[in-house]
Design goal:
The structure holds two protein chains of two kinds. By secondary structure, chain A is mainly α. Chain A folds into two domains: about 10-110; about 115-200, no CATH class. Chain A has eleven helices and no strands. Chain A has helices spanning about 1-25, 35-45, 50-60, 65-90, 100-110, 115-125, 130-140, 145-160, 165-180, 185-195, 205-210. In chain A, helix 2 runs parallel beside helix 4 (about 65-90), helix 4 (about 65-90) crosses helix 5 and helix 8 (about 145-160) packs parallel to helix 10. Residues about 1-10 and about 215-220 of chain A have low confidence and may be disordered. Chain B has helices at about 5-15, 25-40, 50-55, 65-70, 85-100; strands spanning about 110-120, 125-130, 150-160, 160-170, 175, 180-185, 190-195. Chain B is rod-shaped. Chain B starts with 5 loop residues before the first helix and ends in a 5-residue tail after the last strand. By secondary structure, chain B is α+β, with helices and mostly antiparallel strands. The mean pLDDT of chain B is about 85. The chains are: A mainly alpha, B alpha+beta. The interface of A and B includes residues 72, 77, 165 and 211 of A.
Amino acid sequence: MKLSVALLALLAGPLAAQSARARLEGRLPSAAIPAVDSLVQLAFQEGLPTEPLIQKALEGGAKQVTGPRIVAAVQVSLAQLRDARALLARAGDRPPPLPSEVTTVAWALRRGLPAPVVERVVAALPHAPRAAAMHAIADLVAHHFDPDSAAGLIIDAVHHGLQRERLLDVSTAALHELQRGHTQAEAIGLVRQALPNVPGPPKPTRGTVAGARRPGAAASP
Amino acid sequence: MNTIDPRIHQALDGELPLEGVPAELRPVVRRIAAAADLLAAVGPAVSLESRVMAEIRRPAPSRSRRLTRWLASPHAITFRIRPAWSLALATAAAVLMLFVARGGGPELSEHEGLAQFVGRFPDAQSVHVVGSFNDWRPRSLPLEDQNHDGVWRTTVVLPAGIYEYMFVVDGERWVPDHLAERLVADEFGRENSVVIVRPVRR
């Protein structure tokens, strides 16, 4: 048993790197592939998610960015993932953190959420998936809501039983109040009073569903 | 068949005077002669032939009028079908109704949602949407300008999640989606648009 686990651990690293290299071949300047590949391997060895790094490299290749700039962007992404993991540890998440949560926190920091606010949300929602909560707060901050007040509203919504994508409806409701002429503080107050009753998104029409198609190669980040 | 006495014929034709007819036949001759006078007084009647010819000469009713008349008049319709065929027919009708109710299109799982991409590019020859949902492959997902009004659009089924993307116009110009509510720096000096795909509500 121990031998098989050890073999698996020995094989897992090279297999992950091989898979990344196969996806990168022909998609970015060949000179950049070894450097990107080594960064992907490094992330894997550190227990960090590798998909955001691969996506960043593919994005650079598609945009016909030079090899050095692609490598630099992947390095920045790796640094963001490390920061995110450190933040999760500070906020009290039991190690090792879930790759999806590391990606979520890295996203939140990229979208401009202050690190203390992210820590507060992580600590307040210890077991729930936090992606929607982070994006809901980031949506409000992008419209000049006070980050602490925005985080407070979303945490309140969670305490009222709202979860996952429903939290995006909370930020949408606050933005609607803003459009009606209320200040940011008033908008937060109005939505907080209405919790948990916030309108959901409209259902897609039958025609919309009928006209939809699947992309050839879909990969969730 | 009763035969008429030939002496009555002769009397009516004037070949035999009434006095030459036996007394018992004279009333009959008189009644027939009176009836003949009465018919002559009424004048010539419209013959059957003339009525038939008049009907034939009348113009035939139009096709629509005949159809209307056919639809308005009652008809007996007999419908005979084997039970096996009726079962097959009912199944086919149910399948057809199910298809119509679904409205066609792809079947979405509970972890999938729809992303709608719309952009206005009046002079574009082609527009593609490229992002983390299709491994940033530049030509895999085209938008369509069906009305030729410069508004390009497509709807895509994606696993629920958060994706970055941009439009590629005419295969070379990278443009963010200005209608997107979320933008994020792409580390290459531009901004990617962000779409959050939610599971479709049922």
